[in-house]
Specification:
Number of domains: 1
Number of helices: 4
Low-confidence stretches: none
Helix content: over 70%
Structural class: mainly alpha
Bound molecules: zinc ion
């Protein structure tokens, strides 16, 4: 792990950003399933570049969380 304070702050910010984006992605997908409403598309415009950017960021967040989860998670860290 990085020992620099700045590194820790960046990692924390990345962690929280990725976590937040997974909330958005998961809740939006739930909305699509339950209510047939895609809030991301409704807010940013269906088919817009901004909509696509959000989907890409959610996907990248999933990869980030998959790769860093074990170190962050108390449950997975237990033996
Ligand atoms: Zn875990």
């Amino acid at each position: 792990m990085l020992k620099l304070v700045e590194g820790v702050i960046i990692l924390k910010a990345l962690h929280m950003l990725a976590y937040l984006l997974l909330w958005i992605g998961g809740l939006n997908w739930g909305l699509v399933g339950f209510l047939n409403t895609n809030l991301v598309a409704a807010l940013l415009g269906a088919g817009s570049a901004l909509e696509k950017v959000v989907y890409i960021l959610v996907g990248l967040s999933a990869v980030y969380v998959i790769l860093t989860h074990k170190g962050d998670c108390r449950v997975c860290g237990e033996k």
